[in-house]
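Reopening this one. Same input as before:
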Amino acid sequence: MNETLGECWQQRFGTPPPADLEQLAPFARHRSIRSYLDRPIPESWIRALVGVAQSAATSSNLQLWSVISVQNSETRDELASLASNYEHIRTAAWFFAFVADHYRLKSAAASVGEPAEGLDYAEFYAMAVVDVALATERFVCAAESLGLGICYIGAMRNKAPEVKRILDLPEGCFCPFGMCLGWPDETAEAHIKPRLSQDAVWFQERYNREPPIAEYNERMKAFYESENMKGDVNWSMRSGRRVDNDHLTGREILKEWLEGQGFSRR
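Same output, byte for byte:
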């Protein structure tokens, strides 16, 4: 997991990098780590990483996010059972639930006589989700710079009411994802996954309604086959199936549940 920028770029996009900026290699090396060494990470490191996360941009300094570390093995097991039974939730040195959080601000506002009724609007739900995503990715970049590995756990959304119960989340809180953190077991393979070409995501001046996808389907075919997956089911097919009504894995209730939690009521 010490690839050069050129090696990362070739695996990610199938081309040489556009510039000689080797300082970017640590960011380009990102991959999901699901196998970890049985090696602790000091709490002092976690405090430092949370501080780095808190240094991320936050709209209007509202800081609409929180993080809950979960180290109790029984609680971890319960969360894993809700999240597709992922074993790495149980085995990572640390597990975190990142939370979009209106509760703290609403409490602070109430203490000075402000009703904070605007939090009912979709705008502030979007703001909280943006805040927690920006903070978490800052955490991740810092953790990876220390040689640590991570795996996001979006499956926390599979059973949102149960996650609320386990973590004792009050109204105004929602866990959009969890995260495993640990020392990577480098004997277990974790490959850099190809991404869409820049021409398919970076448009200049106007949105391109016909982004080039065929080339990426071909690159992903080779990647799928290297991972012992069906290469004849390309990225467009696989992704299209992922967003049909049969693959919501419990998340079809999210809109109603989020409204009940105080999000996007208006």
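So the earlier flakiness isn't reproducible anymore. For the record, The mean pLDDT is 96.
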